[in-house]
């Protein structure tokens, strides 16, 4: 896999001495969708701003393709599109003019065919000549994406693309993002919706307090961190967990009717077989059993807490 963005020992300290990014290292691969997850104030927007050259770097370096984002700002900026967190649009401008304007900022000549195709892809083509203020919230978000893609960038940053939007529109945005990936665009999005990362990302990075706590393939992260809970309903209720079963760290319900057993799915041995045989050896009979899988949400909360 080719590395398209390479961040080395990045540190960002704001003027008030706040350390927003703390010695961060990250390689982003060409063509992937990477979701940066983290609570408010984690440093996600700051990270994006430094890569896009909108915010200065305190130390470390960032390369986009082979270009340095500080020394070769124009070159790196040309490869990047940014959909900012805040809606920033010109209300009285026509959709097409707003997009043409964005393209011109990069010194690129008008390309009506490219822009029409872009509008079509974003289902905006029939709004081409409408003023932005007449559009719905969802359409405005699409215009922001169109502006970010107006100069045909290879990398698209989306900073909280679906913050505060309804479920319907969120799903539309996910479809758009997946389509862009098919076109070969590398996508970096920040979000604090775990479901969003779960739905569309190839890799997940978790940021908290300016630290990148982990970056990992979504599937392997879920597999590795995933805990299942086994619920064992008993035929006869019990007052406490028998000594024989101490090592399983079971959680007995207050009713005494059932207990819970947590086990890791990534491990070869779950311990279920021996638990059941130990139960039967002391004459404990079970009524039935159920299992429940932890979600990425549970994993995220656990990582941030730890
Ligand atoms: N211009 C700024 N000056 C000083 N502190 C800032 C500035 N921008 C952001 N911060 C602080 O940096 C930290 C990270 O903010 P931000 O990158 O916006 O986080 P996120 O996007 O993850 O919510 C926060 O503590 C925030 O208050
Ligand atoms: Mg932010």
What would your notes on this structure say?
This protein is an alpha/beta fold and 306 residues long. It is 32% helix and 29% strand. The chain has helices spanning 44-51, 73-79, 95-105, 112-121, 137-148, 167-182, 194-200, 218-225, 272-281, 296-305, and strands at 3-13, 19-29, 33-37, 59-64, 67-68, 80-83, 155-159, 186-191, 203-208, 211-217, 227-234, 251-252, 258-264, 286-293. A six-stranded mixed β-sheet has the order 6-7-8-3-9-10, sandwiched between helices. It has a four-stranded antiparallel β-sheet with strand order 2-1-4-5, with helices on one face. Strands 12-13-11-14 form a four-stranded antiparallel β-sheet, with no helix packed on it. It is elongated and about 80 Å long. Bound molecules: adenosine-5'-diphosphate and magnesium ion. Magnesium ion (MG) is lined by residues 44-45, 85, 159-160.
Look up the CATH topology of the largest domain.
Rossmann fold
Task: Give the biggest beta sheet.
Answer: 6 strands, mixed
- Count of extended strands: 14
Number of domains: 2
Strand content: 25-35%
Helix count equals 10
Give a quick summary of the entry.
The chain is an alpha/beta fold and 306 residues long.
Give a topology summary.
Blueprint: E1 3-13, E2 19-29, E3 33-37, H1 44-51, E4 59-64, E5 67-68, H2 73-79, E6 80-83, H3 95-105, H4 112-121, H5 137-148, E7 155-159, H6 167-182, E8 186-191, H7 194-200, E9 203-208, E10 211-217, H8 218-225, E11 227-234, E12 251-252, E13 258-264, H9 272-281, E14 286-293, H10 296-305
Parallel strand pairs: 3-8, 3-9, 6-7, 7-8
Antiparallel strand pairs: 1-2, 1-4, 4-5, 9-10, 11-13, 11-14, 12-13
Helix pairs in contact: 3-5
Bound molecules: adenosine-5'-diphosphate and magnesium ion.
């Amino acid at each position: 896999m080719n590395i398209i963005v390479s961040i080395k020992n990045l540190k960002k300290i704001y003027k008030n001495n706040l350390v927003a990014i703390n010695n961060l290292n990250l390689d982003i691969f060409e063509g992937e969708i990477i979701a940066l997850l983290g609570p408010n104030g984690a440093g996600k927007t700051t990270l994006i701003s430094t890569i896009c050259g909108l915010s200065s770097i305190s130390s470390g370096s960032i390369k986009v393709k082979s270009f340095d984002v500080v020394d070769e700002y124009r070159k790196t900026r040309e490869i990047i599109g940014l959909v900012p967190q805040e809606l920033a649009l010109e209300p009285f401008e026509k959709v097409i003019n707003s997009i043409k304007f964005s393209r011109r900022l990069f010194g690129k000549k008008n390309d009506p065919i490219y822009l029409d195709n872009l509008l079509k892809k974003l289902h905006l083509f029939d709004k081409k000549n409408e003023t932005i203020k007449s559009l719905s919230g969802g359409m405005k978000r699409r215009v922001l994406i169109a502006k970010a893609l107006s100069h045909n960038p290879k990398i698209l940053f989306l900073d909280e693309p679906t913050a505060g939007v309804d479920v319907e529109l969120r799903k539309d945005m996910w479809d758009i993002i997946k389509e862009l990936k098919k076109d070969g665009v590398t996508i970096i999005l920040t979000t604090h919706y775990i479901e969003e990362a779960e739905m569309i990302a190839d890799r997940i990075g978790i940021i908290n307090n300016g630290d990148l706590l982990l970056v990992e393939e979504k599937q392997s992260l879920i597999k590795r961190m995933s805990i299942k809970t086994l619920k064992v309903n008993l035929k006869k209720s019990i007052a406490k967990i028998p000594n024989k079963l101490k090592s399983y760290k079971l959680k007995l319900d207050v009713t005494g009717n059932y207990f819970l057993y947590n086990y890791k799915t990534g491990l070869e041995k779950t311990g279920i077989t021996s638990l059941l045989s130990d139960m039967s050896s002391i004459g404990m009979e079970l009524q039935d059993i159920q299992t429940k899988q932890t979600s990425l949400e549970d994993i995220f909360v656990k990582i941030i807490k730890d």
